[in-house]
Amino acid sequence: MAAEPEVLDELRRLRAQVPQLTGALVTGAEGTVLAQDTPGVDPEAMAALVAAAHGAAVRLAELTGQGAVGELLVRGAHGYVATYAAGGSAVLTLLAEDRVNLGRLLMEGRRAGARVGELVDAYRAAAAAAHPKPARPGKPPAKPVGARTRTARVARTTNGNARTTTDS
Fold first, then answer.
1. Smallest Cα–Cα separation from 51: which of 12, 80, 92, 15?
2. In which element (H, E) is residue 130 found?
3. 71 pairs with which residues across the strands?
């Protein structure tokens, strides 16, 4: 990903702002690793779990009418895992020690999530513009609006053995 150096710079800046961070990961919402700084943690496995957790959070928020998911926080015995929506198609995940200032983690995570989202969305928009998707083969071109045609209706015939009821 061409935006990866900028995203990694943002992750380094974030680690400098919040020294108790032990790792950071940026994934696509579908679970692909876009950038990572996760020593001691398998980024591919973590990305798959982040995608599942984020997807469940999105469905839960929709079901309960809470709106778009902004963040998801998990507190474990040894620290925190915080995920943040990052633009339209990415998720920022932060790992932090249990002694982290939680308010600072949330504030900096939200800010970094917004910045990472801008970077990833801009990169994906530029990539889509540079390489437009071709039309799917085998699919007929769409008919222009107003070009509808109708086939003539054929009179219905009834079976000669059909019964009708009449009042007697």
1. 92
2. helix 102-130
3. 84
Tell me the three state secondary structure of residue 163: coil
- The vertex-30 CA angle with 108 and 102, nearest 5°, equals 20
CA atoms lying within 13 Å on the CB side of residue 121: 12
- Round to whole Å and give the CA distance between 127 and 123: 6
Calpha distance 27→16 (Å, rounded): 21
pLDDT 10s digits, 12-46? 999 999 999 999 999 998 899 999 999 999 999 99
Residue 35's nearest CA partner among 106, 120, 100 is: 120
Tell whether pTM > 0.90.
no
Written as one letter, the residue type at 145 is: V
Sheet containing 33-37, strands listed edge to edge, beginning at the edge strand earlier in sequence: 33-37, 21-28, 90-97, 79-86, 71-76
Report the largest interatomic distance among the alpha carbons of the chain, rounded to a whole angstrom. Answer: 96
Q: What is the DSSP string of 50-80?
A: HHHHHHHHHHHHHHTT--S--EEEEEETTEE
Beta-bridge partner residues of 35: 26
* Axis-axis angle for helices 102-130, 4-17 (nearest 10): 170
Q: How far apart are CA 85 and CA 72, in angstroms?
A: 9
